[in-house]
Amino acid sequence: MRHSILLLAFFGPLFSCGGPAKDEVRHPSPSPPPAAQQSAPADTRPVIVAFGDSLSAGYGLEPGLSYPDFLQKNLDAAGYSYRIVNEGISGDTSSGGLERVPSVLAHKPAIVILELGANDGLRGIPVAQTRDNLDQILTQLKASGASVLLAGITLPRNYGELYIRDFDRIYPGLAAKHGVPRLPFLLEGVVLNPKLMQRDALHPTAEGCRIVARNVFTALQPLLKK
After folding, report:
1. Cα dihedral sign for 153, 208, 156, 58?
2. Does the residue 34 lie in any domain?
3. 54 an active-site residue?
C-alpha cells in the first residue's frame, strides 16, 4: 500500500480534456523541525553511597536486585527523598576501597554505608592491615562532612578462633573511635538460611538482599531527614 501511494504521488499524470498535460512532480512537504530535546531535570536529592564489595554490588543477581536497589524502594516508600548510588565492586578489599575513596566522595554523599573487609578476612589479610585501611577510609569520609554507617561482617568459623576474634573486633572498635553508628552484622537473619543464600553460601539471593536492605534501613534511619 505504501509503495502504491508513493508511485501515485510521484508518477501519476494529470489529464485535461485536450490531452495529456505536463507531468506534475509533487515534492513532499518539508517535515517540521524536531522539537528541541529537553534535558532531564537534575536529580537534586541527597546521595547515599553504598560503598562496598560484592555484598553491595549484588553479585550473582540480575540488575535491580541488590540490597541497595531494595534500600532505594524502602526509602521511597517511607517518604525519604534520597538517591542511592551503588559503589559496590565484587572482590574489593579494604585496600582497594581506600584507593576508591575519591571516586566515592565525587558523588558528594550526604551518607555513606561502608561495607568492606569481608574479602580481607577470606584472604587471611592481617587484621591490623584491614583495621588501618578502614580507619583511613572512615577518617576521609568523616572529613568530607558525610555521615557514615559502618556495616559489620564476620567470617566462616573455620578461619580460626583467634583470627575471627580479632577480625570481629575491628568494627565496634572503629565505630567507637569515629563516633559512627554501626550495623553489627550485615547478613543478620540471612546467612544461616540456605533459602536466602546463593549456592556459594557467601552471597544472598534476591530475597536475602531484600532482608539485608531492611537491616540497613533500620540502622540508617537515625541519619535520615525528611
Report:
1. negative
2. no
3. yes
- Closest of 190, 216, 215 to residue 203, by C-alpha: 190
Average pLDDT over residues 28-43: 63
Residue 37 lies in a domain: no
Q: Is the confidence at residue 74, as pLDDT, over 80?
A: yes
pTM of the model as a whole: 0.82
135 counts as catalytic:
no
More confidently predicted of 17 and 171: 171
From the candidates 92, 120, 147, 203, give the one annotated as an active-site residue. Answer: 203
The whole-chain average pLDDT of the chain stands at 88
Predicted confidence band of residue 23 (pLDDT cuts 50, 70, 90): very low
Q: What is the CATH number of the domain that holds 140?
A: 3.40.50.1110
27 is catalytic: no
For residue 13, is it within any domain? no
- CA 62 to CA 68: how far, in whole Å? 13
15 domain-assigned: no
Among the options 23, 39, 54, 178, which is catalytic? 54
Which of 175, 132, 127, 135 is CA-nearest to residue 154? 127
Residues in the chain: 226
